[in-house]
Specification:
Blueprint: H1 3-13, E1 17-22, H2 35-38, E2 44-51, H3 63-89, E3 94-96, E4 103-105, E5 110-112, H4 117-123, E6 128-129, E7 135-136, E8 144-151, H5 170-174, H6 187-194, H7 208-212, H8 222-227
């Protein structure tokens, strides 16, 4: 089974983007969070993405954005599990790694996925990571959700993308809690503010860094490109 067939399987399950990374692209992964730390027999890393509903950014409430985020996370976990089941039926070992969620890394004092989805996506040629720490894809900008699958299959890796972020610092300046002032995002400040710890609210009430980015939209987000001049996306849902 080759790389294109793997991609076609995931497209059939509902993926919008798919890429493959070789293990040599993970040399800078933190100790304990390399693909081989999860699956010792791993040969390739598969990353797939689904476009985020861009229209949620045009809303005056954070509810649609939060609902989409939660549903996509569940949907993509189910897609990953189904893909891995299908692979096992053909004698191929593949495992999902959880679309949304993290664990605390005591060595670095940061929370992270068991394999970083955005770094894996960059390594798989889906896009590049911007100053705001989000993946930017040519097709959908940063409006994508990501999931990672590890496999024993040795697949041809996709070509890497050229970075588009020019460090304009708009995301740094707009952050209400100054979480982007250093190269490493201040996770606690960001998450406490955006995910309700400060507001005691279930809604994801801030994504200003995403909204203000000049590369928010990719070539296929035409619904927002049409109305972008009428949207106040830099407001997000927080003040």
């Amino acid at each position: 089974m080759d790389t294109q067939e793997i991609k076609n399987r995931l497209y059939d399950l509902g993926a919008d983007l798919c890429g493959v990374a070789s293990l040599d692209r993970f040399s800078e992964a933190p100790e304990g969070y390399h693909p081989l730390d999860v699956l010792p027999t791993c040969k390739s890393v598969i990353v797939f993405a689904i476009r985020f509903v861009a229209g949620t950014l045009a809303c005056n409430t954070a509810v649609p954005y939060t609902v989409v985020r939660n549903i996509l996370s569940d949907k993509m976990d189910k897609m990953a599990v189904q893909f891995c089941i299908d692979m096992e039926k053909e004698g191929i070992l593949a495992i999902p790694t959880r679309t949304n969620g993290s664990e605390y890394d005591e060595k670095t004092g940061r929370s992270r996925g068991i394999v970083s989805a955005k770094h894996a996506a960059q390594a798989a040629g889906l896009g590049t990571i911007g100053r705001h720490s989000l993946l930017i894809t040519p097709e959908y900008g940063s409006l994508v959700w990501l999931s990672v699958i590890l496999t024993e299959l040795e697949l041809d890796a996709d070509s890497l993308k050229e970075s588009v972020c020019n460090d304009c610092n708009l995301c740094v300046e707009v952050c209400p809690v100054n979480a982007l002032e250093s190269a490493d995002v201040n996770q606690k400040a960001c998450w406490d503010y955006a995910f309700g710890e400060v507001r005691n609210d279930w809604r994801i009430s801030c994504h200003k860094c995403r909204d203000i980015c000049p590369f928010l939209l990719g070539s296929k987000n035409m619904i927002l490109k049409r109305d972008i001049t009428h949207m106040n996306v830099t407001q997000s849902h927080c003040s």
